[in-house]
Design goal:
This protein is mostly beta strands. Helix content is about 0%, strand content about 35%. The chain is built from no helices and 11 strands.
Length: about 250
C-alpha cells in the first residue's frame, strides 16, 4: 500500500430539534505533479463541511483557514485562507414512504460547502498534517459529553513524506468517498449506508470506526484562524457509545 489515509467521520445520535452549526465533513487531496520550484510537489487540497442549510451570519464560513504542519515537528509550515468554491443544499426525502418508521418526518436540510486550493509543498522526509478547526457541532447530540454545541470540530488529513514505507507515497492522492449525502435512520430498525471509497492510485483501503477529533473552538466559528498544532485529542463519548461503536452495540 503506497499511502496511509486516515479518514474521520462522526456519527451523531441526535434528538430532532432546532440545533445548527456543523454536522460533519472531510478533507482530502489530489496530487497534481511537480511544483513550480525544485523538489516540490503540487496538490489540490479540498475540504467539505456539512452544516444546517439555514445559518446565522456568524455561523457560515465563506472562507476558511487550512493549516499545514510539518509532520515531524508538528510546527506550522503554512496557513492559507481558502474561499468556498461550491455550496449545495441537500434535503432528505420528506414523503412517508421514504421513512415508514417515522410518523412525523422532520424537515432535514444539509448545506455542503466545498473549499479548494492548490498548494506547492517541499518534498520532505516526514510529510505534512493538514487541518481546519472551527465550532460548533449541532445541539442535542446525545452520544458525547459535555453539551455537543460547545464542542468544536477538527478536520485533518496527512500527506506522507519520503520516510514512509514507500518513499514515493507523496505522489499519491487520497481516497474519495462515494457519498455526498445524509441519512435518516430509525432507532431499532434495519438500515444500510454506503461508506465505500475509491482510491485513484489503485491502493487497497482499510475501514474502521474511530474516535472523532475534538476542537476547543466551541463558542465562535473562527473561520480564518489557524488550527492548533497536532496531535489532536478526541471527544468524550457517553458510555456505552464509543468511537469504535458510535451508534451503540446494535450497529
Amino acid at each position: 500500500m503506497k499511502q496511509l489515509l486516515v479518514a474521520f467521520f462522526l456519527f451523531g445520535i441526535v434528538n430532532v430539534a432546532s440545533g445548527n452549526h456543523t454536522k460533519g465533513g472531510w478533507m482530502y487531496y489530489k496530487y497534481l505533479g511537480a511544483g513550480a520550484a525544485a523538489n516540490t510537489a503540487r496538490y489540490l487540497v479540498s475540504l467539505k463541511i456539512y452544516t444546517e442549510c439555514v445559518l446565522n451570519n456568524n455561523q457560515f464560513c465563506s472562507e476558511v483557514n487550512i493549516s499545514i504542519f510539518n509532520a515531524g515537528s508538528n510546527s506550522l509550515y503554512l496557513a492559507v485562507n481558502v474561499t468556498g468554491s461550491d455550496v449545495t443544499d441537500i434535503q432528505n426525502c420528506t414523503r412517508q414512504d421514504c421513512h415508514p418508521c417515522i410518523t412525523d418526518i422532520p424537515n432535514i436540510c444539509y448545506k455542503i460547502t466545498t473549499y479548494q486550493t492548490i498548494i506547492d509543498l517541499p518534498i520532505t522526509p516526514a510529510g505534512y498534517i493538514l487541518s481546519h478547526q472551527r465550532c460548533c457541532r449541532i445541539a442535542n447530540i446525545i452520544n458525547m459529553q459535555p453539551g455537543s454545541s460547545s464542542i468544536g470540530d477538527t478536520w485533518t488529513v496527512t500527506i506522507p513524506g519520503t520516510n514512509s514505507a514507500d518513499p514515493s507515497a507523496f505522489r499519491n492522492s487520497s481516497a474519495l468517498f462515494a457519498q455526498n449525502d445524509t441519512a435518516i435512520i430509525c432507532k431499532d430498525n434495519y438500515f444500510t449506508f454506503d461508506f465505500s471509497a475509491d482510491d485513484p492510485d489503485g491502493d487497497s483501503l482499510v475501514y474502521s470506526f474511530t474516535d472523532a477529533y475534538f476542537s476547543s473552538r466551541g463558542n465562535a466559528a473562527q473561520c480564518t484562524s489557524a488550527s492548533d498544532p497536532p496531535p489532536y485529542s478526541f471527544i468524550n463519548y457517553i458510555a456505552p457509545v464509543s468511537g469504535s461503536q458510535p451508534l451503540g452495540i446494535g450497529v
